[in-house]
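Box 3.1 A note on notation
Throughout this textbook, protein chains are presented in two layers. The first layer is the amino acid sequence; the second is a token string describing backbone geometry. Keep the layers aligned when reading.
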Amino acid sequence: MPTAALDPALRSVRATYDQVAVDYADLLRDHLATNWTSRAVLGLFADLVRAEGRRGPVGDIGCGPGRIIGHLADLGLDVFGVDLSPAMIDVARREHPQLRFEVGTMTALDIATGSLAGALGWYSLIHLPGRLVPVVLAEFRRVLMPGGYLLLAFQEGEQTRLITRAYGHDGLSLTLHRRTVAEYEELLTAAGFAVCSSTVAAASGGERERQAYVVARAADE
């Protein structure tokens, strides 16, 4: 999608992650190996998708360099990734050449309605202004088949912070929106999901905020 066609709030997100893509991938490459809460939640998500018995792929929407999609593939899921940043997709394709990655925006996914057995928004909604969150959740609901599962991960809180330095880069302009589990539960319900589980983990390993994970199921039609 051309930058001009993007919502203005997403243009700086794309530019920032294009700038930091290689260093981001290097810094976080082994993070999941010792993040037991994340691994447990991803395992739960994979078990739910498999247990449901629905045939369909799982989309990691906002996949970055593909570190989560690689883990889910190891857990036996048929996964692919979508990310706003072409530079992130380039890194993902180099590091996971056996998997499929595409450039795209979560506000208007190029994915067929009702085609996914599962979807992830793994820290990929954290830069969205409030007006776009319902738009994205509606897109997730559209592309999921009835009974499909969605997993969201995000920093838990209520503040907004401007990031100007990250991953070894200065001069960035990236807004981080913290949201509460209760807020996401309400938004998910309004979008046609039933919340299955919510987990909040204390900040650790250099993180500033509590980390939250919400699993929801798309309503049956």
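The CA atoms of residues 175 and 207 lie 16 Å apart. The chain has a mean pLDDT of 91.
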